[in-house]
Specification:
Elements (H helix, E strand, L loop, with lengths): L3 E5 L3 H13 L3 E5 L2 H10 L4 E5 L7 H10 L8 E5 L4 H10 L3 E4 L4 H30 L15 E6 L3 H11 L3 E6 L2 H10 L4 E5 L7 H10 L8 E5 L4 H9 L4 E4 L4 H32 L10 H18 L3 E8 L2 H8 L1 H18 L5 E6 L2 E7 L3 H16 L3 E2 L6 E2 L3 E7 L7 H17 L5 E3 L3
Parallel strand pairs: 1-2, 1-3, 3-4, 4-5, 6-7, 6-8, 8-9, 9-10, 16-17
Antiparallel strand pairs: 11-13, 11-16, 12-13, 14-15
Helix pairs in contact: 2-3, 4-10, 5-9, 5-10, 7-8, 12-13, 13-14
Length: 455
């Protein structure tokens, strides 16, 4: 793993020591002597993680961290505060300022490398989500991603076989979270997959299960792969902590547990989880917009091109029938000319609604372009497809289209062209062309009819 790390400290010896340790792990290291220089570097250079000293002249580490997290350009950069004093008050204040973790001087080599690698893995995930979301929005109409900062109570899963320990943690976290406590591995795995938890807290010294194996299982299962994990460890158990971080555990807290630190660390993980969930939701929404026709709400031609290939290949591999219908509103141009384009849009939306209402759930309905629509019917024979197309034709003809803005009633019809996958049709493009040719024949044959392509 390679990354660019910024070391911020006003004492040159401290900078050199951390720089040497990180370079030995093949990291690219930048340095700054105060907070002002650190903020400047973050604005102009790519920085993947910051090791930030607390006690500095001019601007202390707390203020630097607050400024970094308040700036959207730098808010995603993990910050590890490095302090000479192992004071709980400093840790809590730093976590509330947005710090991701703490290291105490003299810095333990194992904890330094493990913590850095763990945070870089998390950043890589968030960066990938942000890049994909931004790239997807550049190809589609979508709203800008926004973190609404919701502060509702979180759902936390506590895995602890010791009743007294369970009770203390539940009492501490009750003001900020709804907590489900379980005592064994099977219950933890089942419960975690059954409800949308935002954090799992695992007792690192358990009587009835191996906590590291449980953490590994959380990371191996699809439904819990991105669930943040905080492990409770004994002070001095560095080997267990290093292994836990390597397995993908997000954070740890040492006994004796300080209530304020536990709350702060939980809130940090919950906030990051919600941020990444919002990114994923934004990405999914943007991708959905990219393949959805904004007027009718149907899938668009981009989606059709990709999905038709999949359905065609599946039909060939399984030897199952596949039917395709192209329909076009007869004399639609006259609607726009006589009633205006706004009325034409209303007609298109109502036309799509009627098609959707009369299509089966397994069928794929798309707007092909303009007033043309495509219906793909998997596992559908020629006879059933012809009957389905006739049903659609009747649904258009029998009831006039009413323009809501003016109350005008418009009688319309539609023409339909059918095609069926056969031994002579080897590609989805050929199937689509066959249906298009049949539609052309329906238009030339008087409109308002269903024409099937010749076998």
């Amino acid at each position: 793993m390679t990354a660019r790390i910024l070391v911020v400290d006003d004492i040159p010896a401290n900078v050199k020591l951390l720089e040497a340790r990180l370079i030995a792990e093949y990291f690219d290291v930048l340095t700054a002597v105060d907070g002002f220089e650190a903020l400047s570097i973050c604005q102009t250079d790519q920085v993947d993680l910051i090791l930030l000293d607390i006690m500095m002249p001019g601007m202390d580490g707390f203020e630097v961290c607050e400024r970094l997290k308040a700036d959207p350009h730098t808010a995603h950069i993990p910050v590890v505060m490095v302090t000479a004093l192992d004071q709980l008050a400093d840790r809590v204040r730093g976590l509330r300022a947005g710090a991701d973790d703490f290291l105490t001087k003299p810095v333990n080599d194992l904890q330094l490398v493990s913590r850095v690698k763990s945070l870089l893995r998390l950043k890589a995930l968030s960066d990938e989500l942000r890049v994909r979301s931004e790239a997807a929005r550049s190809f589609a109409v979508g709203e800008a991603f926004e973190d609404n900062g919701a502060e509702e109570n979180a759902r936390i899963l506590l895995v602890d076989s010791r009743p007294s320990s369970q009770e203390r943690i539940i009492k501490t976290l009750k003001p900020i979270a709804d907590i489900m406590a379980v005592s064994d591995t099977q219950a933890a795995l089942y419960t975690a997959g059954d409800a949308p938890f935002e954090l799992a807290i695992v007792n690192g010294v358990a009587d009835s299960f191996d906590p590291l194996r449980l953490c590994s299982q959380f990371r191996s299962l699809e439904r819990t792969r991105v669930l943040p994990i905080l492990i409770v460890a004994e002070n001095g158990d560095d080997e267990m902590l290093v292994r836990a971080l390597d397995l993908g555990v997000n954070d740890y807290i040492l006994r004796p547990i300080d209530p304020n630190e536990l709350i702060a660390r939980c809130l940090t993980q919950i906030k990051r989880k919600r941020y990444n969930d919002l990114l994923r939701a934004s990405l999914n929404q943007t991708i959905e917009l990219a393949v959805t026709d904004p007027l009718t709400g149907l899938n668009n031609r981009r989606y059709l091109d990709n999905h038709l290939t999949t359905l065609f290949s599946r039909s060939m591999a399984r030897g199952r029938p596949l039917s395709l219908v192209i329909t076009d509103i007869d004399r639609f141009k006259s609607v726009n000319d006589a009633y205006g384009h706004a009325a034409g849009d209303e007609v298109l939306k109502e036309f799509a609604r009627r098609l959707r209402a009369n299509a089966r759930g397994a069928d794929l309905l798309c707007r092909y372009g303009g007033e043309e629509f495509v219906l793909i019917m998997p596992d559908t024979s020629e006879e059933l497809a012809a009957a389905a197309a006739e049903k659609l034709r009747a649904a258009i003809e029998t009831e006039p289209f009413v323009v809501a803005s003016s109350g005008q009633s418009i009688s319309l019809t539609a023409s339909f062209g059918l095609a069926f996958r056969s031994a002579s049709i080897l590609t989805p493009h050929q199937l689509l062309n066959q249906a298009d040719t049949a539609l052309y024949q329906a238009k030339n044959g008087g409109r308002n009819k269903v024409v099937a392509a010749a076998a």
